[in-house]
Amino acid sequence: MERKIKKKHIDYSCGFPVVLLNVPMVKILDNWLPDINYDKLAKLVLVVLAKKRIPLTGSEIRFIRYYFEMTLREFARRLGVKHTAIVKWEAKQDQNASVTWGIEKDIRLFILDKLCKSNKAFRDGYKELDVMQGSFEEKAKIHPLKFEVHESELQKVG
Fold it and tell me: Taking the complete model, does pTM exceed 0.85, yes or no?
């Protein structure tokens, strides 16, 4: 099998574009495909989403719900909203989902609670979110469609 490193690869497996840097690639049937662990990538993307400094998009909320295998009603119940709110947020796709900071913080804490391996990691994530609150509304207007993930970061996710 032929192998190479691709400096920049855009992956859509999460339902939105994720830019991967220095990705190992493998040639299979004349097609170059990323040679990565997609479960680790999904976990890393979730951690990035929990800590990103701008509001979540509809596609990102859908990815979170799908990853944790929750129905619309289960996710809505967990957040204390009606399932129609989740439908509305997810329909925004690559745009800001227009979720209040309290609910968005709950979504992010839910991710950290499920993925953090230690209490300290969870507390550190909580502190980061606490600092974000003040500037969150200002940043609601900003939305890049892609964020970057370096291959070495995949090694840090269990």
Answer: no
